[in-house]
């Protein structure tokens, strides 16, 4: 096998593994206590063999929910040996330091301040007031005060959006 073929095969295996992890998460989501949960992101560090799953919940992510997902995924990993016998697994809520990725996350953060980096390099800051099909609406903030100006920003123009903590 040539170098490019090996790399393509390796990437295909990684995609298949990620799809399987998503399927395992979906099995847990089908249970009544976890059907408001959703997978936000998967990170894998090959060097440390460390898998991190970020899971959100419409009703708020609790320690109990994180533990349940962790045990469920761990049971699969132990049985399948997808990551071998020695691996690290972390299951966490995304937290305020991580960018919003899913429309559902925006919906859960209405009323909170966002700091937005747009794809054109410009920035916006404001209170998230509405989440529509393809856009969000924020009431712009300059300094610490709301300006009253409403900005409508399409999701496709958002590079990163971070929830800002008010003190």
Automatic annotation (TrEMBL):
<dbReference type="GO" id="GO:0005829">
    <property type="term" value="C:cytosol"/>
</dbReference>
<dbReference type="InterPro" id="IPR028998">
    <property type="entry name" value="RimP_C"/>
</dbReference>
<feature type="domain" description="Ribosome maturation factor RimP N-terminal">
    <location>
        <begin position="36"/>
        <end position="96"/>
    </location>
</feature>
<dbReference type="InterPro" id="IPR003728">
    <property type="entry name" value="Ribosome_maturation_RimP"/>
</dbReference>
<comment type="function">
    <text>Required for maturation of 30S ribosomal subunits.</text>
</comment>
<keyword id="KW-0690">Ribosome biogenesis</keyword>
<protein>
    <recommendedName>
        <fullName>Ribosome maturation factor RimP</fullName>
    </recommendedName>
</protein>
<comment type="similarity">
    <text>Belongs to the RimP family.</text>
</comment>
<dbReference type="GO" id="GO:0006412">
    <property type="term" value="P:translation"/>
</dbReference>
<dbReference type="InterPro" id="IPR035956">
    <property type="entry name" value="RimP_N_sf"/>
</dbReference>
<keyword id="KW-0963">Cytoplasm</keyword>
<dbReference type="InterPro" id="IPR036847">
    <property type="entry name" value="RimP_C_sf"/>
</dbReference>
<dbReference type="Pfam" id="PF17384">
    <property type="entry name" value="DUF150_C"/>
</dbReference>
<feature type="domain" description="Ribosome maturation factor RimP C-terminal">
    <location>
        <begin position="100"/>
        <end position="167"/>
    </location>
</feature>
<dbReference type="Pfam" id="PF02576">
    <property type="entry name" value="RimP_N"/>
</dbReference>
<dbReference type="InterPro" id="IPR028989">
    <property type="entry name" value="RimP_N"/>
</dbReference>
<dbReference type="GO" id="GO:0000028">
    <property type="term" value="P:ribosomal small subunit assembly"/>
</dbReference>
């Amino acid at each position: 096998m040539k170098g490019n073929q090996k790399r393509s095969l390796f990437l295909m295996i990684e995609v298949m593994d990620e799809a399987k992890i998503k399927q395992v998460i979906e099995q847990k989501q089908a249970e009544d206590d976890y059907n408001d949960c959703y997978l936000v992101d998967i990170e894998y560090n090959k060097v440390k063999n460390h898998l991190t799953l970020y899971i959100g919940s419409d009703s708020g992510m609790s320690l109990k929910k994180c533990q349940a997902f962790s045990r469920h995924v761990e049971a699969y990993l132990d049985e399948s040996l997808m990551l071998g016998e020695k691996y690290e697994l972390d299951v966490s809520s995304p937290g305020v330091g991580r960018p919003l990725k899913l429309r559902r996350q925006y919906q859960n953060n209405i009323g909170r301040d966002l700091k937005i980096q747009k794809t054109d390099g410009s920035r916006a800051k404001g209170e998230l007031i509405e989440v529509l099909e393809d856009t969000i609406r924020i009431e712009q903030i300059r300094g610490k005060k709301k300006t009253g100006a409403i900005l409508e920003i399409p999701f496709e123009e958002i590079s990163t959006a971070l929830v800002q903590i008010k003190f």
